[in-house]
């Protein structure tokens, strides 16, 4: 099974994907994958998601490669501290996790050996933010523009100390002052 996936260059595999391909029950697949993990043949990244080191890949695997497996049906984009760090690396502290805005539920995932991914739920429909995404991508995922990342910071009530104070004038926040704790919590 793993050899067949390795020949297809499938580095990341999920229980759901294996269920669709092989038709075995998810419980049987989990038992088999657990045994393979204990034997060192594969690496568990997150419950139900595994890395197949037998697959030959041409580049390093990033957290962005795993995100579609964690949120298969959700619309998402990189935002908040991660987007601010990409747009203004000198003015934003390096985030501890890849922060992703999603239409799915909020979740913090610690991926073995890759780092953390933080999903933050947004009630906004994709039509309201799709035209505000940057043209570039980050770790293979859509990236929020600088202004959209600032707006998301305000909506989620996160502190703006991580962004460039000179740019904060453009959003109506006085330089050197944090927004009120209730600012931006109407819709996340």
Write the layout of secondary structure elements.
Elements: H1 2-7, E1 12-14, H2 15-22, H3 26-39, E2 43-46, E3 49-51, H4 63-70, E4 76-78, H5 80-87, E5 97-102, E6 107-111, E7 115-121, H6 126-129, E8 133-138, E9 141-144, H7 146-156, H8 165-168
Helix pairs in contact: 2-3, 5-7
Account of the 3D structure:
The chain is α+β, with helices and mostly antiparallel strands. It folds into 2 domains: 59 residues; 107 residues, no CATH class. It is built from 8 helices and 9 strands. The strands form 3 sheets. A 4-stranded mixed sheet has the order 4-5-7-6. Strands 1-3-2 form a 3-stranded antiparallel sheet, with helices on both faces. It has a two-stranded antiparallel sheet with strand order 8-9. Helix 2 crosses helix 3 and helix 5 runs antiparallel to helix 7. It is elongated and about 45 Å long. It starts with a helix and ends in a 20-residue tail after the last helix.
In short:
This protein is an alpha+beta fold and 188 residues long. It is built from eight helices and nine strands.
Output the number of helix runs.
Answer: 8
**Percentage of residues in DSSP E strands:** 15-25%
Cα shape: elongated
Order of helices and strands: HEHHEEHEHEEEHEEHH
Structural class: alpha+beta
Number of domains: 2
Helix content: 25-40%
Key attributes of the depicted protein:
3-stranded antiparallel β-sheet, alpha+beta, disordered C terminus, single chain, 22% strand, 9 strands, AbiEi_N, 4-stranded mixed β-sheet, 188 residues
């Amino acid at each position: 099974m793993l050899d067949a996936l390795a020949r297809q260059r499938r580095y990341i595999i999920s229980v759901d994907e294996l269920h669709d391909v092989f038709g075995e029950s998810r419980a049987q697949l989990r038992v088999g994958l657990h045994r393979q993990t204990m034997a060192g043949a594969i690496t568990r990244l997150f419950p139900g998601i595994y890395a197949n080191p037998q697959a030959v890949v041409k580049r390093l695997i990033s957290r962005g490669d795993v995100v579609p497996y964690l949120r298969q049906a959700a619309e998402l984009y990189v935002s908040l501290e991660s987007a601010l760090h990409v747009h203004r690396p000198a003015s934003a502290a390096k985030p501890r996790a890849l922060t992703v805005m999603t239409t799915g539920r909020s979740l913090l995932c610690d991926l073995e050996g890759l780092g953390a991914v933080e999903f933050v739920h947004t009630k906004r429909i994709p039509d309201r933010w799709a035209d505000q995404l940057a043209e570039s991508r980050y770790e293979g995922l859509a990236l929020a523009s600088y202004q959209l990342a600032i707006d998301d910071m305000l909506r989620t009530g996160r502190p703006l100390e991580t962004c460039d104070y000179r740019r904060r004038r453009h959003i109506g926040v006085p330089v050197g002052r944090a927004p009120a704790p209730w600012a931006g919590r109407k819709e996340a």
